[in-house]
Amino acid sequence: MDNRNIKKECYLEQLNHAIISVEMVFNQLRRLKDNDEFDSHFIIKDIIKTEFQLELSLASLCIILRKMNENVFLKLDQERRRDVNSIIHSNKFEFIDEHKIYVFSQKGKEEVDLYELIDYAKSFI
Question: At what angle do helices 3-34 and 114-122 cross, to 10 degrees?
């Protein structure tokens, strides 16, 4: 096996780990937001922490996608390139609904559909 194939295999493994991480954090966030049993100030703190964890796991996923594009292991279409760069360069997320977020960066506010981004990443595995 040549170095390029080994590199591609490594990138695909990391992409899979990043997808799993995003899905786990996203599922945890949905569970927390659906929880009505505990005192709200405890839940609010956990929700805020989980949103930051989601931001970081999404950034990791997007960095891997961008590196794979730069190494010509995949081709990011224009919409995905915009989403990837927005998430990497973001300084704030705002959740619109269950799966859409506004990403704020120096370029302004952009909408990203998390389900579409995750499905896009999964299509390469």
Answer: 150
